[in-house]
Structure prediction request, 127 residues.
Amino acid sequence: FQELALLCRRMFSKESDKIEKYVGGLPNMIHGSVVASKPKTMQEAIEIATELMDKKIRTFAEREIASKRKFENTSRTTRNQQQQQHSNKRQNTGRVYTAAPGEKKQYGGSRPLCAKCNYHHDCPCET
Prediction:
């Protein structure tokens, strides 16, 4: 804007006209704040606008970082909880196998019990 204003001096004979046109071209998020500050010179308007834009960008970057940290903490917590639950499942599985007494099931088949090897099969036994 400043370069064009220098080239077209006839368009902006007054400083207030330059300021008005410059402020009119600013993004909506800082436009109102620059107008409210009522800059007296073009340089003052530029400094205010630059400062406000820098502040907006910093705020946006800080929010992004905070959001990422929150997500990372959440995912770490979730991952730790899953690992803990998984290890608990392993422990519980071991308990299931060791908790029951060594009861044997009765044979439900039709083959006879071999006296030599103590297994159910058709004789002759080859052991």
Summary: Residues 2-98 form one domain. The CA atoms of residues 114 and 120 lie 6 Å apart.
